[in-house]
Amino acid sequence: MANSAMVSRVENERVLVLERVFDAPRELVFQMFKEPEHLKRWWGPRGWEVPVCSIDFRPGGIWHYCMKCVDRNQGDFFGMESWGKGVYAEIVEPEKIVYTDYFADAEGNVNEEMPSTEVTLEFMDLEGKTKLVNRAVYVSAEALKTVIDMGMLQGITETWDRLEERLQEGK
After folding, report:
1. What secondary structure does DSSP assign to the chain, as a single string?
2. CA proximity to 10, closest of 115, 126, 152
3. One Pfam family name from the record (predicted)?
C-alpha cells in the first residue's frame, strides 16, 4: 500500500496543522505514542535514534527523550544529541493527547531560549485506519517560522514515514 501523504497547513499565522492517514487501527496508533519501547523504534527523522525515552503517561506526567544522529552521511549533524521534554496536559485514550513540547537538556531542564509548543494529537477512527491530526500552537508567527526554517516539516514527514513502517511490521 502506498503511504498516505502528510498534509500541512498554517492557521492564524502560528498554528501548524499536520494530518495523515495511517493504515492501522486507532488503538494501535495511539499505543505508538504512549509506550517508550514503541517510540524508541520510530521517533525522529531518518538517521536518528532515541537512546533515552522515559514516559510518565498521565496528565502532569513528563516525557523526556534524547534523539541522536547516527547517520555519518548527515555531516555536521552526526553525533549530535537533541533533548526534548513533553509535559502532558490531557489524555483521552485512544482519542487525544495534549502536551507542551520543550527543548531541554539531559537533566530535563527546559531551554528557555527556544520556543515551546502546545501540541494536540487527535486520533480519528476511519473504518480500521486512523487519521492523525497534529495541531501545534507556537507562541508567535516568528517561532513557527524558526522551526520550519530548521527543517521541521521534513523531519516530521520522515518521522511519520517511520511510524507507518513500524505499524506495518506489527501486521
Report:
1. -PPPPPEEEEETTTEEEEEEEESS-HHHHHHHHH-HHHHHHH-SSTTEEEEEEEE--STT-EEEEEEEE--GGGGGGTT-EEEEEEEEEEEETTTEEEEEEEEE-TT--B-TTSPPEEEEEEEEEETTEEEEEEEEEESSHHHHHHHHHTTHHHHHHHHHHHHHHHHHHT-
2. 152
3. AHSA1
Contact (Cβ atoms closer than 8 angstroms) between residue 55 and residue 35: yes
User: Three cell numbers at 13?
Assistant: 499565522
pTM (two decimals): 0.93
pLDDT in tens, 133-159: 999 999 999 989 988 998 889 999 999
- List pLDDT tens digits, range 3-37: 578 999 999 999 999 999 999 999 999 999 999 99
Q: Residue 104 is which amino acid?
A: A
> How far, in Å, CA of 91 to CA of 99, rounded?
9
**CA–CA distance from 96 to each of 55, 75, 80 (Å)?**
16, 37, 31
Joined together, the cell numbers standing for residue 135 give: 495541531
Residue 69: CA count within 13 A, CB half-sphere: 13
User: What is the end-to-end Cα distance of the chain in Å, rounded?
Assistant: 13
Angle between helices 152-169 and 26-34 (to 10 degrees): 120
